[in-house]
């Protein structure tokens, strides 16, 4: 592998790390705000969450379109996940003034589906991701949270703020840890690639 290819691989890893870290921090902050001020922050947190969904959707679509390293299923999964995130974000923005319970009932189905798709996409990357334990943990938490939300939408709408707050805190922490561990994986990958090219 030439130095330019190693540099490109390192740049890709860095981009993915930044995306994971930023989305993790946004999720963590939104979750903490939800848990601390559940009633006062319903509209504000809905706006923050809708912004997160749109940004995450654009990032996932970008990863799906421009990634040359991932396989076809992972790229398609990223694009589908991105579209789901954007649809959920647009719906949330359109209903910011509506009561939190009504908004929760509309958005909860999209959240459940997007968490399940996100978990499945993470599982599809399991063999290619060096932080396998954290990726598996993230995938399982995401799928379980999505299934719970989809099978009890009325209950989930009633307690969405609490469930969403806890889920965002946990998923945010896991995303941040994935970003940190991916940095070590990037260094190992680039070092291994350079060693292989030297042979």
What does this 3D model show about the protein?
This protein has helices spanning about 5-35, 40-65, 70-95, 100-125, 130-150, 155-160, 160-199. Helix content is about 85%, strand content about 0%. It has about 200 residues and is mainly alpha-helical. It starts with a helix and ends with a helix. The radius of gyration is 18 Å and the shape is elongated.
Structural key phrases:
elongated; single chain; 199 residues; 7 helices; mainly alpha
- As a whole number of angstroms, the C-alpha radius of gyration is 18 Å
**End-to-end C-alpha gap:** 10 Å
Structural class: mainly alpha
Low-confidence stretches: none
Compute the average pLDDT.
78
Major β-sheet annotation: none
Number of helices, counting only DSSP H or I runs of 4 residues or more: 7
Order of helices and strands: HHHHHHH
Query: How would you sum up the global shape?
Result: elongated
In percent, how much strand structure appears in the residues?
A: under 5%
